[in-house]
Design brief:
The chain is α/β, with parallel strands linked by helices and 295 residues long. The chain is 40% helix and 15% strand. The chain folds into two domains: 56 residues, no CATH class; 230 residues, 2-enoyl-CoA Hydratase, Chain A, domain 1. A seven-stranded mixed β-sheet has the order 3-4-5-6-7-9-11, with helices on both faces. Bound molecules: zinc ion.
């Protein structure tokens, strides 16, 4: 029997499992409510805990799959930029950190990926961050990617949707990373000047130089539940002003209450919400049914 099991049954199981690309660790613990979640359920729930609603961090590939109509989109090739312009080294060489992130996320990847397609039948360009790539930090390549995304949106007369998930500027690029702040603002302005929608979906976390640049100037600012959005961390602020900060400070819901974001939208409702907003902005005649029929 053991032979039959190990020689026949196990390979079959492995073949089925690998075909569906179910990861080895089939369970994941929710960091918020500590419930154990079946990974397949979690994936089906768009990586949102079914017990407490905690939104796990997800990458650009998942974002594109869930936002574009019929999960159909085209990834855009992004401009090549100088690698390691300052020859930076902390505990590790910057080039080594880049190599490690690219090994995990695919050759040529960076902290932001851009794709185009349709959302609710409206042409849209989406720039989505991968926090897994060096904390989603913004260096020259990210700035260049956002400029490319803006130009593409203008060229295609499409809406631009940016989904940050970032710790802020990439310190390994020093002042060059800080220069991406005004650069990405100008990029977003290209879209605004063309009278096209520029929507920001703030996800956990959106902090530092990213929170203080393009992410802050969306025509419409949407946030995912529980997302931390802010310039400096709560601990740094507390230590600076010597005061206890209120409960939920810098969380999406707190920011909504204080007028910093327009809406907090659950991940499962995000695609439909974006589709509705884009239709209202781009095809108001079709999206809004008149209350009174005029002769
Ligand atoms: Zn939970």
């Amino acid at each position: 029997m053991p032979n039959w099991l190990s020689n026949f049954v196990l390979p079959k199981i492995r073949a089925v499992v690998s075909r569906k690309e179910v990861p080895d660790n089939l369970w994941k613990q929710c960091p918020s409510c500590e419930q154990t979640l079946f990974l397949r359920d979690l994936v089906a729930d768009l990586m949102v805990c079914r017990h407490c609603g905690h939104h796990f961090r997800i990458g650009s590939a998942e974002r594109f799959g869930m936002l574009f109509d019929n999960a159909t989109f085209e990834k855009i090739e992004l401009p090549k930029t100088a690698i390691d312009p300052l020859r930076f080294r902390d505990r590790k060489r910057y080039t080594e950190r880049l190599r490690e992130s690219q090994a995990a996320l695919g050759a040529g990847s960076e902290a932001v990926t851009v794709a185009r397609g349709q959302i609710g039948g409206i042409a849209a360009v989406v720039a989505a961050f991968d926090f897994a790539f060096m904390g989603g930090s913004m260096g020259v390549a990210v700035g260049a990617a956002l400029v490319a995304a803006s130009r593409l949106a203008v060229e295609r007369q499409a809406a631009l949707i940016v989904i940050p998930s970032s710790g802020g500027a990439r310190m390994q690029e020093g002042i060059l990373s800080l220069m991406q702040m005004p650069r990405t603002i100008i990029a977003a302005d290209l879209v605004k000047e063309a009278r096209l929608p520029y929507i920001v979906v703030l996800t956990d976390p959106t902090t530092g130089g990213v929170a203080a640049s393009f992410a802050a100037i969306g025509d419409i600012a949407i946030a995912e539940p529980g997302a931390v959005v802010g310039f400096a961390g709560a601990r740094v602020i507390e230590e600076t002003i010597h005061e206890k900060l209120p409960e939920g400070f810098q969380r999406a819901e707190y920011l909504l209450e204080h007028g910093m974001v327009d809406m907090v939208v659950k991940r499962g409702d995000l695609a439909a919400t974006l589709a509705r907003i884009l239709r209202l902005l781009c095809q108001p005649a079709i999206a809004s049914v008149p209350m009174v029929a005029h002769p």
